[in-house]
Task: inverse folding
């Protein structure tokens, strides 16, 4: 018996209003999610050089075979792809992802994904109720914020009190549910096609990076609503239940009677609510909440209701300003600010960078009333929600300096003639491709390299918690990390197949330019492309490389990912086979970027990464960046703060990486041999036709 | 987490010093802190007043970080802070006191909150110095 897939993907052309289906089987070799999305994009978007707002842009919204099942920290993720509106200098083919219950409802409605093409002549939303699909006028919904739009769609679909039975068929077994439809929508920012526009689902589930909210806006698509009453066929239900119970020994939930702290770095194990409660007012009650089927429930609901479901950077964009304004305490201001951001549908990473940059320009006397960049933005209210409200209003309505910020940070900086100067000094902290620094490429290079060679801030924490957060927070706290650097390198040598090189954990000044670091980045690219973005294992729990509850600190990765996949689908995938599919998808994505114009010489960080060392001083900062290093054969955790990247050594490292991947070292383009080995001969044909095949 | 405190008695600042300590410095003279959060990132934050600095400095206890796998830290290098207070704010006494509290601990978590308290004490002193004089006992408030 096979399971996991519904067997069909919904295809909607907003120009012609045609609704059709794609057989999932044609693309099943890619696993699901991102892999299927990339393959469909390759097939349907004939001209890869078009811009994000071109009606021919193809948007894929894909589930995984594990969506809507009992597999932990995976069932609620949805993967989005298409040409994004955020990338600079090229609007790259890119991806985003969000949690919640949308993917589950798509599966319950009988769909493995949705493909959106064309552009509607008038604002519409898409109403999916099991097999029934309608493109509906967005009159009365267009103009609403993300919360209001969802509530209005709920009213229209349910047509009665929330919680009542909602019958989707006239026959007795036509299906009924008390569930609300799962709605993915954009807000005012998307309607005005801001390159900061996000997509939101329920509360706090956001696909921010890539500006897909603006792509929705360009297609006159306000929202997609889905309500399903079916289920997901499980090939081996007992194996799935057994796997779920087995996995609980790696989680806090499985240690009710013998609780010990999970240990920093044990991402799968962490406590409920841990992704949000540190950011809100300590005196305000909050309860954990999470995505469909998840054991972990990272997020919280606050008593005030504001910012419910938000987590992490949703708050991080502004929490320090709130604290600075209010005597070091988080107040209602951070909850209200987060709420406003979510309702407007804005990308919090872009907003974090915007506020940091604008504040610096204000202090420099460049931005402000009567200044070179004239604005009445109330800088004296920085830290209050009123400042965020004013900034959002200017951006989404294209007023004042917001008219330029509406186009994203990079294009605003270019228009203001500040891009080169401010990315060189670092006051505009764009690391690559118009994506603000999330973690520092100068120190935590696997993060920076992965972003540089891809299309966006990778936002993949597989190593981050182990190589940066755990040793750094331990050093700041005067304790030893849960495991030594030597133990960490040993675990990675076991887990990171097929490379299995302990030196992959060496973040020393030499290690960051080594072949071992190339292996680490390659492993990361291949793992995440398949297991995280195609099978949809959540970044906040997977990979499970180190786990304090696991035998000798070993987490589930290697065993866990295929165990759940095989139980659901009935396939017999090995972990290594999954890694190879990931490599195949990574190469397919690479080919799309190459057709968009990617060349090796474009793949450079912004200048501050090479020119500014974060050395102690009061106008720079000393980062407590403690990382594993191997010096003279000895492993230790050591501060690598103050490091700048060496331009030539980065170029030499890229050559090592390209060799490892089987790409042309002069151009960074994949060769026919590499693509053919991966079953991508048709991709090689197209690259050759466009004179962009590596040799 | 144990923190180390040393008794510090700062002399009353002059009105000029108090005004300077409560004022805002230029962009070039700012102090840059590092805001850290598991998953959220590790990024700089510009600080232009002593009050902002005092509010920013924080570190949660390690047990919570262990349990929740999540915490936030407002990090400022104590040596850089002392240098900023000395060279920009021209308060040698406060700078010396910061260095004393730094020397009394071995790691950031043990010195951060004592330094924060020191800054808050100094800010309070400055506010008192600059506050309008209270009417003295036995004197009419308005004659």
Result:
């Amino acid at each position: 018996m096979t399971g996991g897939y519904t067997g069909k993907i919904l295809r909607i052309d907003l120009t012609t209003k045609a609704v059709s289906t794609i057989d999932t089987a044609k693309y099943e070799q890619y696993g699901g999610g991102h892999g299927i999305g990339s393959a469909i994009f390759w097939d349907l978007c004939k001209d890869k050089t078009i811009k994000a707002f071109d009606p021919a842009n193809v948007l894929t919204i894909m589930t995984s075979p594990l969506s809507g099942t009992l597999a932990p920290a995976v069932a609620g993720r949805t993967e989005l792809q298409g040409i994004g509106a955020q990338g600079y200098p090229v609007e790259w083919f890119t991806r985003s992802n969000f949690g919640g219950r949308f993917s589950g409802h798509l599966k319950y409605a009988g769909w493995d994904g949705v493909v959106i093409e064309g552009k509607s002549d008038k604002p519409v939303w898409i109403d999916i109720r099991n097999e029934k699909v309608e493109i509906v006028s967005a009159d009365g919904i267009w103009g609403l914020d993300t919360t209001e739009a969802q509530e209005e769609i709920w009213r229209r679909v349910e047509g009665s009190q929330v919680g009542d039975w909602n019958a989707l068929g006239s026959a007795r077994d036509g299906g009924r549910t008390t569930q609300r439809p799962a709605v993915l929508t954009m807000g005012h920012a998307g309607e005005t096609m801001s390159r900061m526009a996000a997509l939101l689902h329920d509360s706090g589930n956001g696909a921010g990076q890539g500006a897909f909210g603006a792509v929705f806006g360009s297609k006159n698509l306000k929202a997609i609503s889905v309500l399903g009453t079916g289920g997901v066929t499980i090939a081996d239900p007992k194996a799935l239940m057994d796997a779920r119970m087995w996995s609980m020994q790696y989680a806090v939930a499985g240690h009710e009677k013998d609780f010990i702290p999970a240990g920093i770095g044990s991402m799968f194990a962490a406590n409920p609510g841990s992704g949000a409660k540190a950011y809100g007012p300590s005196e305000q009650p909050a309860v954990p909440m999470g995505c469909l089927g998840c054991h972990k429930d990272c997020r919280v609901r606050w008593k005030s209701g504001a910012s419910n479901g938000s987590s992490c950077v949703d708050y991080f964009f502004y929490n320090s300003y709130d604290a600075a304004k209010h005597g070091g305490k988080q107040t209602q201001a951070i909850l209200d600010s987060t709420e406003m951001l979510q309702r407007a549908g804005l990308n919090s990473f872009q907003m974090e960078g915007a506020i940091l940059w604008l504040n610096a320009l204000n202090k420099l006397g460049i931005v402000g009333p009567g200044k070179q960049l004239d604005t009445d933005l109330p800088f004296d209210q920085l830290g209050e929600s009123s400042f965020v409200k004013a900034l959002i209003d200017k951006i989404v309505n294209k007023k004042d300096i917001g008219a330029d910020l509406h186009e994203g940070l990079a294009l605003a900086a270019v228009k203001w003639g500040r891009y080169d100067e401010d990315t060189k000094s670092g006051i505009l902290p764009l690391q690559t491709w118009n994506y603000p620094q999330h973690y520092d490429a100068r120190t935590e290079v696997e993060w920076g390299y992965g972003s540089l060679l891809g299309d966006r801030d990778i936002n993949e924490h597989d190593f981050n918690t182990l190589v940066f957060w755990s040793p750094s927070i331990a050093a700041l706290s005067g304790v030893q990390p849960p495991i030594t650097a030597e133990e960490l390198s040993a675990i990675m040598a076991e887990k990171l197949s097929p490379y299995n090189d302990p030196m992959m954990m060496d973040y020393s000044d030499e290690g960051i330019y080594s072949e071992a670091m190339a292996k680490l980045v390659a492993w990361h690219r291949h793992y995440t492309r398949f297991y995280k973005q195609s099978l949809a294992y959540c970044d906040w729990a997977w990979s499970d490389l180190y786990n304090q509850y696991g035998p000798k600190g070993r987490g589930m990765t290697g065993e866990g990912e295929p165990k759940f996949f095989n139980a659901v689908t009935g396939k017999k995938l090995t972990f290594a086979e999954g890694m190879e599919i990931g490599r195949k998808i990574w190469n397919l994505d690479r080919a799309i970027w190459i057709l968009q114009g990617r060349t090796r010489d474009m793949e450079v960080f912004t200048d501050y990464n090479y020119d500014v060392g974060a050395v102690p001083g009061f106008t720079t900062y000393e980062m407590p960046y403690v990382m594993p290093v191997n010096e003279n054969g000895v492993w230790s955790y050591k501060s690598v703060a103050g490091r700048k990247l060496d331009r030539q050594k980065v170029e030499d490292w890229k050559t090592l990486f390209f060799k490892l991947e089987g790409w042309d070292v002069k151009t960074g383009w994949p060769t026919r041999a590499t693509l053919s080995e991966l079953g991508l001969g048709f991709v090689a044909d197209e690259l050759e036709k466009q004179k962009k095949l590596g040799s | 987490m144990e923190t180390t405190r040393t008794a510090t008695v700062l002399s009353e600042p002059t009105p000029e010093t108090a005004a300077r300590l409560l004022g805002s410095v230029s962009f070039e003279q700012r102090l840059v802190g590092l805001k850290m959060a598991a998953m959220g990132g590790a990024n700089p934050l510009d600080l232009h007043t002593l009050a902002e600095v005092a509010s920013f400095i924080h570190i949660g206890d390690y047990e919570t970080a262990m349990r929740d796998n999540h915490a936030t830290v407002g990090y400022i290098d104590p040596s850089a802070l002392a240098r900023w207070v000395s060279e920009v704010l021209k308060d040698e006494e406060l700078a010396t006191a910061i260095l004393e509290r730094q020397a009394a601990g071995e790691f950031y978590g043990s010195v951060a909150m004592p330094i924060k308290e020191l800054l808050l004490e100094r800010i309070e002193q400055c506010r008192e110095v600059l506050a309008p004089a209270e009417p003295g006992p036995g004197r009419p408030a308005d004659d």
User: Anything to note?
Assistant: The longest helix of chain A spans residues 575-596. The first strand of chain A starts at residue 8 and ends at 13. Chain A is about 35% helix and 15% strand.
